[in-house]
Amino acid sequence: MGWEMYITKAETWSESADNPISSVEWLKLVEEDEELSLNPRNGEFNAIWRGESEHIDPWLDWNRGCVYSKQPDVALYCKMLQIAERLNAKVLDEDDREYVLPSDLLNPSWAKSAMLKRMSLWERFVAMLKK
Question: Which pLDDT does position 123 carry in this prediction?
Fold first, then answer.
């Protein structure tokens, strides 16, 4: 399990189909971007990013009007910001918080809040005991 980030033109990522990035737009962007290449073994819209990442195969995928990735590292997140700018879109996390600057991903208050939401009740209890 992991958290996801979305590139969307909509107000919330779940409404991306209402104001979509079309599959044609996405495929055109992948074709024009030297750092991206389609990875058909993972679906017709899945792309691998060849930038420097801590992940072995950093990926982006298109579905229902948005582009997304799971647990992007800072480098892939910055690439998502570039893509959003090219598509006249924005980057949102799964809680619909907008990310604008490269440093936004590292903001401790957002990170702590997101981390706590992903922790089980038991993990929260253990973390509270450690304080």
Answer: 57
Identity of the residue numbered 17: A
Q: Which two tokens stand for residue 28?
A: 């055109």
The whole-chain average pLDDT of the chain stands at 85
Triad 87, 79, 18: Cα angle to 5°? 35
Report the number of secondary-structure helices (H) and strands (E) in the chain: 4, 7
Q: Return the bridge partners of 98, or none.
A: 92
Q: What is the model's pTM?
A: 0.79
Edge to edge, the sheet with strand 90-93 lists: 36-38, 47-49, 59-63, 66-70, 4-8, 90-93, 98-99
Q: How many CB atoms lie within 10 A of CB 34?
A: 6
Give the burial string for 82-100 (b: 16+ CB within 10 Å, else e).
Answer: ebbeebebbbbbbeeeebe
Q: Is 125 exposed, middle or buried (0-12, 13-18, 19+ CB in 10 A)?
A: exposed
Residue 79 DSSP class: H
